[in-house]
Design brief:
The protein is mainly alpha-helical. Helices cover 68% and strands 0% of the residues. The chain has 4 helices and no strands. The chain has helices spanning 15-29, 33-46, 51-81, 90-120. α1 runs antiparallel to α2 and α2 (33-46) runs antiparallel to α3. The chain is elongated.
């Protein structure tokens, strides 16, 4: 007869990461300031977090910086392409920049929802340093 033994994991506070995920999602749809507030809180909490929640903080911080990086590239293409519209070279740049900004916005929302999913299951984020999900 085999008894199944479940090992209890130590309790880690999931409220703060959940609030940060909420700030990110709220910022994606309305006030971008909440995303910056979430980033500051994630940096402040990462050092004192347990093993599982530290992966979420790392994931949140990395999500922010990757989003900013690609968003700046997209906006730069759009702004650089506007003056070049005179010779029609700017049109492809504006289109590519717009696609980058749109895809990054969707990617940010999906990535945040995936992180929230793992948090709701009380699991560490499996690949916090990944580029995708």
């Amino acid at each position: 007869m085999t008894d199944s033994v479940t090992v209890a994991r130590p309790h880690e506070d999931r409220v703060v990461p959940a609030v940060i995920y909420g700030l990110y999602l709220f910022g994606a749809f309305s006030v971008l300031l909440t995303v910056f507030i979430g980033l500051i809180v994630a940096y402040a909490q990462r050092g004192s977090a347990g093993e599982r929640m530290e992966t979420h903080y790392t994931f949140l911080i990395r999500t922010f910086w990757l989003t900013i990086w690609w968003f700046v590239i997209g906006i730069a293409l759009i702004l650089f392409g506007i003056p070049l519209l005179i010779v029609l070279i700017g049109l492809p740049m504006i289109i590519v920049g717009g696609v980058i900004v749109s895809v990054v916005g969707i990617w940010f929302i999906v990535r945040t929802c995936v992180g929230l999913y793992y948090l709701s299951r009380d699991e560490a984020y499996p690949r916090p340093m990944s580029w995708l999900f």
